[in-house]
Design a protein that fits this description.
Elements lengths: L1 H6 L4 E3 L5 E3 L17 H10 L9 H35 L6 H4 L6 H5 L10 H11 L2 H16 L12 H11 L7 H10 L13
Antiparallel strand pairs: 1-2
Helix pairs in contact: 8-9
């Protein structure tokens, strides 16, 4: 689903009265036009449900979970694009190695950011420029630094999935709860909503 959010990123969207801003939230995907659906939000969901089927009687819950997932994915992709730009700039422009950990301590200028747009923003350079403006806003930087300090104080993972990727977390759930069918969609829900309870069913695919 995260891939679909990136694939169908709307770029700049019209907030009415001549205000055009990047779609840096899931809600703003509703404002992006699409050639197959009414808007980009519907396009992402339509493409997703081509490959997955909600359990009968749980369609509403599945739809709500999909929206929650997309909300997180869009926020994450905007945030992660900043770190990826740091890595890309050092590797492709400066020809120096840089990993994600080191990227957290790097600062770029606007001109440098513009040389390494996010892959999903290649055809939306105006939107990327505006996103970069947000990265460089003092309020955003202050919030980012506060988040770093909070993360440094944590002694446990921020969610049940920890550092494992989703397929690995799904396998771990299946081993720990062999009587509870789990789809990847359901595993994502568990990782963000809490531990599984006895007898719980988490189907997301069909």
């Amino acid at each position: 689903m995260g891939c679909l959010c990136r694939k169908h990123f709307p770029g700049l969207v019209d907030l009415k009265e001549g205000r055009w801003e990047p779609a840096w939230s899931w809600d703003r995907y509703k404002l992006g036009s699409d050639d197959e659906q009414d808007n980009k939000q519907e396009r992402v969901l339509a493409d997703f449900w081509r490959y997955f089927k909600a359990e009968e009687g749980r369609e509403t819950l599945a739809d709500q979970t999909a929206h929650r997932a997309c909300k997180k994915y869009v926020g994450d992709m905007i945030h992660e694009a900043r770190l990826q730009a740091h890595v890309d700039y050092y590797r492709s422009i400066k020809k120096e190695p840089l990993n994600k950990t080191g990227a957290r301590n790097v600062a770029l200028t606007k001109e440098q950011y513009l040389q390494v747009p996010a892959s999903w923003c290649m055809s939306h350079r105006s939107a990327w420029s505006r996103i970069v403006d947000r990265y460089l806003d003092p309020a955003y930087i202050a919030k980012h630094e506060q988040g770093k300090r909070k993360r440094a104080l944590r002694t446990a993972p921020t969610h049940h999935q920890g550092s494992r990727n989703l397929p690995a977390f799904k396998r771990a759930l299946e081993v720990a709860h062999p009587d509870m069918p789990v789809s990847e969609f359901g595993a994502w829900a568990v990782s963000h909503m809490g531990p599984m309870k006895s007898g719980q069913r988490l189907h997301g695919g069909g």
